[in-house]
Structures are given as structure tokens and as C-alpha cells.
Amino acid sequence: MIRVTGDDDGVVDGLALERAIRTHLTGDPDPTRPVCTAASAMLVFERADRVAPCEFSATNVPIGGDEDPWQHPALVELRAAHARRELPTGFCAGCIWRLREGEAGRCPMVREYAVLPVSDRPGARIVVVRLGDDDAGVGARVASLLAGRVETLVVAGDDPFGSPEFASLLTACGALDADTRPALELRATVWPDPATVERKLGEVPVTRARVRWSEDLAASLASAVAIVGDPDRVVVEFALGPKTWVRLYETATIAADAGVMCRLTVDPALVELPLREQQFVAQRLARDWGRLGGDARPRSLAESAYSELLADVRAAIRRATHEDHDPSTVLDGSGAELAWPQLDDATLVDADTGAELCCRAFELRGTRSLRRWVEAHDRGQLERAAVESPWIRMLLLSVVCYGRHEPAAHVLRAIYADDKRRR
């Protein structure tokens, strides 16, 4: 068994975890192997003064200006706990929950880190840097760790090419000999044209890339493939969430056309939606088996990718519902909203997908997101679309019938003022 320590003491099924790990390894696991190898191999810099032991950690720790982050007492104790086959709730809450739900195979310690080799050499072999609005100084901080110690440097951000901290990291990498320079993996949403990227990178090659979903995915993906030089070392990263829930098939198709695989995850913002909208997304995803599962799936999706994503969505909703004790936020009090496609979006323009989406949206009649979708459009545009599509007319009717909504009612009055349409 594996012991859980911290605020929620107990045990979890160690045998299930071992069986899941064996599916990722070519041989039997080393009996001296820590229960999780992530903390023994990597550091994740959230900011210059905040570091986490892995990309899925429930918390991070503060580090002083002159402190070696690898030797932070909390991280030293975490590595010792893993060696004793213990999972502290402060760091490992996500994996603990998966284990207790009988989902060992979907724990990050298995899916992401089971293949990480165990090393006796002290220090992080993998450093992940997350760039964002509060990243000042992280480039210089990480640069001091690179020489001779780090094998892989992962830089993640929406637009790292515009970040001075990324420029600082590239300068540090470029100053190292090729033999001691870490391999660079870049995860970005915005990928400029290849000439601009090469000018930014200088002499530092990108060995692997993840392209996060964006409206300009096709162009960004083409740029990443050109920079890395091998589609097998490029991955499209798609997180199913409030803004992307209608984009999965489109994303998988774009990736397939580029010869690239998709990595499917769940955006944490999904569980911030009202519960009715969370369930709507899960149900719509379940109905997509015909396009995304079995032999019909785009070749960018692994055989189990669709079913695993669906299981992850359901598990995330189940966990959020279990942990949130405030009914107002679980049911409809959240500030998050489902983003609906614009009227000229291909999803609604296509007769089949548009009809299916509008028909299913009756389940959400009266929700704030649908009302705001109506309000976001020009009335003339809505009227023209409603004249052409009976499904959009029915959607507007559902919004009006559930509760007074003048913009939708105005469009319907304008349409049905015509005797022929009214009949």
C-alpha cells in the first residue's frame, strides 16, 4: 500500500499503481524506485521566487534570492517521502484523488512521469519555466542552473517570443557548449513565421514543440513543424474548456493534415462553469464518438485519446461537485460562461453540426451564456441567420420562453411579422 500523509491521512492501492506503471515500462519497475519520480528529476518555476516539484503539483514553495531551489527543505522532504512510498496531500492531492477513485492509469505520476529514469545525481535534470505576466527575473534565475546540470529546458507560455525572460534564457543557452547545452522544448500558443522564430532563437535549436490551440492554429502549427524539422517531435496541445468545447474535431483534423499528434487535456476552467453547462459539454463530447472514436477518428488522435478525454471530463466534474460545498457556485453562481460560436462560424454554418448544436442547446435554455450570445450579435445579423435556420429560430424561442429577453423577442417579432413566415 501507499501511505497518504498530511491533512487527509490514509492509504491508497499501491498494487493498482504498480500495474499502471508497468504498462509504460519495458521491464519490471525497480523495487527501490520512488512512488513518483517527478520530484527527483525536475523543478517547475512558476515565478522567479516560486518553484514546484512537478507540473501537476497542488502547491509551490517560495525560494530566496540566493537559495538553491533543489535544496529547499520542503522539496528535500518530498523526495524522501516518495522514497518511503508516501504521498503528501500538500503536493500530491491530484494523484491521490485519482488513486482513490480507482483511476491509477490516469494519474500524472503514471501518464506523464512513469518513464522518467531514476538518477543518483543531485539536481534537476528537467527544468520547466512558465512565462506569464509575473515572470520578471525568472530567466536569470533559471540561467544560473543550466550549466552542466540540466538536460532538458521546457519553456511554456502564450507568447514566449515576445518575452525578455525567454530572451535571457536563450542567451544563457547560446553561451553553453553544444555538449552541455540543455535540449530546448518549447510550448507556446503564438508561433510567428519561421523566419521570425529563427531570428529569435539564434543558434539554439528547438528539439521538441507543443502548439497550444488558438484561432490561428494551422499557421502556428506550420511554423512549429518548420522550426523543429520533424512532425513526430511536434504535438498539438488541446485543452477542452469553456472557449474550446466546439473545436476538438476541427483541431484534430488540422493536426492530422500536418502529420502531428494531439494531446488532449481538460482546462481547469471547465469545472468553473455552472453545473448544467459542465454536463452539457460532457454529454456533447460523449455524442461525438462517431467522429472522434473508433476507426473513424482523425489519425492525429491515439486509439484511446477520445475515451480518456471523456473519462477525464467526467472525473473533473465529479471531483468539482464533490469538493464544492457551496450550492450557488456548483449550480449557477460561477462567473465562468460557456463561449458560443459566432453566427458566421463554420460550426453553425454547416447544416449538420449547426442543427445538432442548436437542437442540443435547448438543454441550456435560459442560461446566462446563451442570453449573452444573443446580445453579442447585431440584431440584423441575428434576424438574417434566423430566417435561414429554423434551428436558430427555435433557439431564440427557447431563450424567450424561459424568461423575458427583449433582444431575442425583438428578432422573433421582426421575423414573424411576415405572414408567410408566421404560417
Commentary on this structure:
By secondary structure, the protein is of the alpha/beta class. The chain is built from 20 helices and twelve strands. It has helices at 14-22, 73-83, 89-100, 108-111, 138-146, 164-174, 194-201, 217-228, 248-257, 275-286, 289-292, 305-323, 327-331, 346-349, 351-360, 368-375, 379-388, 390-402, 406-416, 419-422, and strands at 2-5, 10-12, 42-47, 50-52, 61-62, 86-88, 126-130, 152-157, 183-188, 206-212, 234-240, 261-266. A nine-stranded mixed β-sheet has the order 5-4-3-7-8-9-10-11-12. A hairpin with an 8-residue loop joins β4 (50-52) and β5. α15 runs parallel beside α18 (390-402), α17 (379-388) crosses α19 and α18 crosses α19. It is globular, with a radius of gyration of 24 Å. Residues 325-333 have low confidence and may be disordered.
Helix-strand layout with pairing:
Layout: E1 2-5, E2 10-12, H1 14-22, E3 42-47, E4 50-52, E5 61-62, H2 73-83, E6 86-88, H3 89-100, H4 108-111, E7 126-130, H5 138-146, E8 152-157, H6 164-174, E9 183-188, H7 194-201, E10 206-212, H8 217-228, E11 234-240, H9 248-257, E12 261-266, H10 275-286, H11 289-292, H12 305-323, H13 327-331, H14 346-349, H15 351-360, H16 368-375, H17 379-388, H18 390-402, H19 406-416, H20 419-422
Parallel strand pairs: 1-6, 3-7, 7-8, 8-9, 9-10, 10-11, 11-12
Antiparallel strand pairs: 1-2, 3-4, 4-5
Outline of the structure:
It contains 20 helices and 12 strands. It has 423 residues and is an alpha/beta fold.
Structure characteristics:
3-stranded mixed β-sheet, alpha/beta, 423 residues
